[in-house]
Amino acid sequence: KRSYNVTLLPGDGIGPEVVAVAKDVLSLAGALEGVEFRFQEKLMGGAAVDAYGVPLPEETLAAAQASDAVLLGAIGGYKWDNNEKHLKPETGLLQIRAGLGVFANLRPAAVLPQLVDASTLKKEVAEGVDIMVVRELTGGIYFGQPRGFGKNDKGEDTGFNTEVYSASEIDRITRVAFEVARKRRGKLCSVDKANVLEASMLWRKRVTSLASEFPDIELSHMYVDNAAMQLIRNPKQFDTIVTNNIFGDILSDEASMLTGSIGMLPSASVGESGPGLFEPIHGSAPDIAGQDKANPLATILSAAMLLRYGLGEENAAKRVEAAVTETLNNGFRTGDIYSPGTTLVGCKRMGEEVLKTVESQSAVA
Ligand code: NAD
Ligand code: IPM
Ligand code: MN
């Protein structure tokens, strides 16, 4: 029997609600493939600030580093919004990404036929969209030095950040993106702001020079402002997008809305070696936390990515994805993806319905 250690980081807000559901789905799909999980749950984010006085306790990072894969819910909330930077939940998230070295964040945004009506775009625009955003995750303006608060020469308060990318940081994310594009439809669009920013000028230069290693891939470049517009105008022109940390953050939230809801989008973050980090792209949704309203499908689909990219358990991953499709076919919808004629359910019930469909698969397997 194959056995894996998985660290669960439920986090804050809706995080614990969606992780509880995804854990059960992961267990059951694994069991049907002869896979066993040993779960350990650790605190991070605001929950860890409250319990330990830091957003990423050493114990949590050590457990994550020692495991085979990490499943994260979400962190953050009003309570900690005005904390000093080192006591912010978000700081803990950046620390665990850096601590695990997961520089490549894969954020797929595919419009499922069952959810075309949930998109705010016209059916003919949304239908068939299937994009993979490859976001650089451990560099750029999120991590660049110098950063901080200061004073300008008029004595006014200032806040400043620095975007820095080294050639090797750009090269490694670009190679991942070319490989991803190769397994998809063979098109890669690199998004930058090379008309203004030096970090983007180097980005474009490196991406262009690496293209010769991937002659089978059709490479294009686009400025981020245009990309934001094109994603809404004609999203089907995109296959794989590679971009820096902050542009990837923003464009993936935008892309989520093509699919109907941010509550649908999973992600996988991987590095050169060591465990991957798997998390929905959404946040802790404090506006609906504790009300059993969250859509758990993004986290369930993140568990599928954990199985595929984190553990190489492709069959179990397919089971989870098939169960999500089947549950949508059965008409179940959380509020964020609801449309008339479907059955409105909460987070827990959605989880139960997904579990039921995984169970029913065992008969045919
Ligand atoms: P958010 O993604 O938490 O919420 C944005 C909107 O989407 C809200 O209306 C929310 O109710 C809705 N939403 C999000 N996930 C949903 C789900 N699964 N089902 C149904 N609706 C969902 O973004 P925000 O409001 O800008 O941020 C809230 C907090 O989350 C902040 O503290 C922020 O820093 C943090 N955050 C954390 C992560 C993370 O942990 N990876 C990501 C983004 C934001
Ligand atoms: C995300 C979030 C984080 C990010 C924040 C909470 C640090 O928005 O995971 O997309 O910007 O990366
Ligand atoms: Mn984000």
TrEMBL record:
Alphabetized InterPro entries for the sequence: IsoCit/isopropylmalate_DH_CS (IPR019818), IsoPropMal-DH-like_dom (IPR024084), Isopropylmalate_DH (IPR004429)
An example Gene Ontology molecular-function term: magnesium ion binding
Q: Which domain of life is it from?
A: Eukaryota
Give its E.C. classification number: 1.1.1.85
Keywords in UniProt for this one? Amino-acid biosynthesis, Branched-chain amino acid biosynthesis, Leucine biosynthesis, Magnesium, Manganese, Metal-binding, NAD, Oxidoreductase
Which reactions appear under catalytic activity for this entry?
Answer: (2R,3S)-3-isopropylmalate + NAD(+) = 4-methyl-2-oxopentanoate + CO2 + NADH
Domain Isopropylmalate dehydrogenase-like residue range list: 5-354
User: What SUPFAM superfamilies does this protein map onto?
Assistant: Isocitrate/Isopropylmalate dehydrogenase-like
UniProt cofactor(s): Mn(2+); Mg(2+)
Enumerate the SMART domains for this protein.
Answer: Iso_dh
Q: For this protein, what does the record note about how its cofactor is bound?
A: Binds 1 Mg(2+) or Mn(2+) ion per subunit.
Q: What class of enzyme is it?
A: oxidoreductase
Q: In which pathway does it act?
A: Amino-acid biosynthesis; L-leucine biosynthesis; L-leucine from 3-methyl-2-oxobutanoate: step 3/4
Name the GO terms of the biological process aspect. L-leucine biosynthetic process
**Pfam families cross-referenced by the UniProt entry:** Iso_dh (PF00180)
Question: Would you identify the family this protein belongs to, as annotated?
Answer: Belongs to the isocitrate and isopropylmalate dehydrogenases family.
Function, as annotated: Catalyzes the oxidation of 3-carboxy-2-hydroxy-4-methylpentanoate (3-isopropylmalate) to 3-carboxy-4-methyl-2-oxopentanoate. The product decarboxylates to 4-methyl-2 oxopentanoate.
- Quaternary state and interactors: Homodimer.
Q: By what name is this protein known?
A: 3-isopropylmalate dehydrogenase
